[in-house]
What we know:
Chains A, B, C: This is Enoyl-CoA delta isomerase 1, mitochondrial. Chains A, B, C: InterPro entries: ClpP/crotonase-like_dom_sf, Enoyl-CoA_hyd/isom_CS, Enoyl-CoA_hydra/iso. Chains A, B, C: Its EC number is 5.3.3.8. Chains A, B, C: Pathway: Lipid metabolism; fatty acid beta-oxidation. Three copies of one chain form a homotrimer. By secondary structure, chain A is α/β, with parallel strands linked by helices. The first copy, chain A, has one domain (29-216, 234-282): Alpha-Beta Complex (2-enoyl-CoA Hydratase, Chain A, domain 1). Chain A is built from ten helices and twelve strands. Chain A has a six-stranded mixed beta sheet, with helices on both faces. The first copy, chain A, has a four-stranded mixed beta sheet with strand order 5-8-10-11. Chain A has a two-stranded parallel ribbon with strand order 3-6. In chain A, helix 1 (58-72) packs parallel to helix 2, helix 2 (104-122) packs across helix 9 and helix 4 (173-183) packs across helix 8. The longest helix of chain A is centred in the last third of the chain and has 21 residues, at 234-254. The N and C termini of chain A lie far apart (45 Å). Chains in contact: A-B, A-C, B-C.
Amino acid sequence: PPAWGRAARQPPGLLRLPGLPLTPCRAFSNNKILVELDESSGIATMKLKSPPVNSLSLDLLTEFCISLEKLENDRACRGVILTSAVPKIFSSGLDITEMCGKSTEHYAEFWRAVQETWLRLYGSNMVTVAVVNGSSPAGGCLLALSCDYRIMVDNPKFSIGLNEAQLGIVAPFWFKDTFVNIVGHRVAECSLQLGSLYPAPEAHKIGLVDELVPEEKLQEKAAAVMAQWLALPDHARQLTKSMMKKAVMDRLVAHREEDVQNFISFISKESIQKSLRMYMEMLKKKK
Amino acid sequence: PPAWGRAARQPPGLLRLPGLPLTPCRAFSNNKILVELDESSGIATMKLKSPPVNSLSLDLLTEFCISLEKLENDRACRGVILTSAVPKIFSSGLDITEMCGKSTEHYAEFWRAVQETWLRLYGSNMVTVAVVNGSSPAGGCLLALSCDYRIMVDNPKFSIGLNEAQLGIVAPFWFKDTFVNIVGHRVAECSLQLGSLYPAPEAHKIGLVDELVPEEKLQEKAAAVMAQWLALPDHARQLTKSMMKKAVMDRLVAHREEDVQNFISFISKESIQKSLRMYMEMLKKKK
Amino acid sequence: PPAWGRAARQPPGLLRLPGLPLTPCRAFSNNKILVELDESSGIATMKLKSPPVNSLSLDLLTEFCISLEKLENDRACRGVILTSAVPKIFSSGLDITEMCGKSTEHYAEFWRAVQETWLRLYGSNMVTVAVVNGSSPAGGCLLALSCDYRIMVDNPKFSIGLNEAQLGIVAPFWFKDTFVNIVGHRVAECSLQLGSLYPAPEAHKIGLVDELVPEEKLQEKAAAVMAQWLALPDHARQLTKSMMKKAVMDRLVAHREEDVQNFISFISKESIQKSLRMYMEMLKKKK
Lengths: 287, 287, 287
């Protein structure tokens, strides 16, 4: 199983995660993510570049999974910095057009790609650092939450959070589990029910991001954090990471197909479709 | 199942809770709780009015469940403010006279009413805000903990906490689970073992209450909090709430009868009966 | 089952832990731990006295378990203060010589003693207070984490933490569970992956220790904390403690032999043996 292939040494008390097969290979545009690997440091940078707002479309997610797997299997790469090439936005979250007026098969394919993205990023053997250089609602926030460490630009104009409830939809249980493990149960409970978006300083206060840094220092800080995490022996760090993430990942792996079916039946409801159409109309008028 | 009837839309990954049937209808004095529903705002106020200290007797709990169910089934009602009509006390907790020198059948009936109260309040589809306008030990604290949000009067004379251990008794596991989800494991561990009661400012510091407000501003603040929570679409908020509360509720639902039997065998011990009699004597002398 | 024998009264919702049998009696040097019991207060002091650094050898752990069991069964004893008789060090953790170049049988015996120590200390019916009067890495930190309360000397020269990852090894899941219950999931996640050691003031900030006290006040403070915890009725405090610790203990009890086998296969790897030998060489040169 490639994603966990490097953790050759079994830790006491740990089970190996089952392989996480990619969805069957499909055609995709290979231009929504810029990947650069610095072989001397072993650090890759993945930049989301899908203007205007880095929506997480099926194409982008597929490209994300394939890019991440390539890095995972490249022995020259030990860490990944995830950031945005689009000014003012990290990612606006799941692409609503993928959830609106499409076939059941399309919903299923899209949701499997969302699951796959999270399983691969959250469970990556590499050190993953999110450099949140703009706003990051909903699915964009999940991407950041799935990294080992979060650095955000120190600017209250940008906000981050799982605001699904504001749109009339519900964050799935594994978004919630990921969130609870970072901010604790009580903050997550209020935040998810209110669909709260936190300006950077407040996000830092509740631990949703680990550090705030002026925009011009983001790269330098990311490199420093990476150096600190890469100073540890890979195998011990990887086994420890796996021990910390395992329970939450196992829960989705055990209920993966059920979660797809739940998504389909929820998103197919006429009331939900109507909400999403209204939301998209609103976004269009905003422009 | 009435309590969950409004959550008609199934969320991804959520199971519907089984119906929580009321204990068979019994005669009860309908005057321990004042219920007022403001139809224009959709907000009801439930005021505990059982002087001198709002003890949670079987009568009060039965009335509580029935009142709450009526509101739950009333489409005009979307939120409930829970507070006290008795000065200086929110609720002194479970009525010790119900646990002292009574029959096994009585203990069982009483404990089922305690369980039912928690299941209905904690699992309510409505937004629930506790306005803790006086002291709130033990079962009184549990009532507050079971709401979505807690506002307490900013006065160090009033305290709140799960102080059961001080009385020689043990908070049941679902009191503990509710508490841990709010203050975290470490604070709960110390607090439950020491039977700590926290003056309002300290309760706020550990997150046991969410806000402190001067007495004359309690109503205004409760209305503001309610407005914030009711601004969300009901169905998304309800499904999210259910996702957050589900694990803890399921645990009691799965062990409900066992929990009743444990309560009976614990409370029937002569040593425990003796402690409770001594405690009641002490309370009488205090007056 | 001796360790839990005093909790004669079953709490609501609690199961009795299975007896935790000592490993078959073996010869051991009875001089690595000083035990003094003050019968008037009911408080015993256990001082680790195994210079130069209180390494947790098989002999020390065996003596620890036997000493603790004696106190557990002594009705005159209600609380234990755990501290060090060696200046500047609480305990340096598991003795690496026990894990290096030994037989499979030896590794198994050693690991069972480590498990036994944790199960007995974490699950003790007595009030346990760690007085961390020096540095306390890895297994030394676990000893402190397994007590009800931690007081540390207020000196940034001394540090504490689960730094296993720095040595290329992995803290077992029950070290992790114990840690998470004290500092929360997010802090534990970073801390274990980075193998962080916290100077006393930082350890206090993240809740890893409960109080910082100048060296000359350690005893006085320990007595005060003990008095506060012993003021509660034993049976209620014990049942509450058991309720809080149970889930984590049950997990090891259910997987105990598997955990031994995992330890053996991990520690027997040539790569791990090599790391440990290099680490020991480095320690020797340091002297």
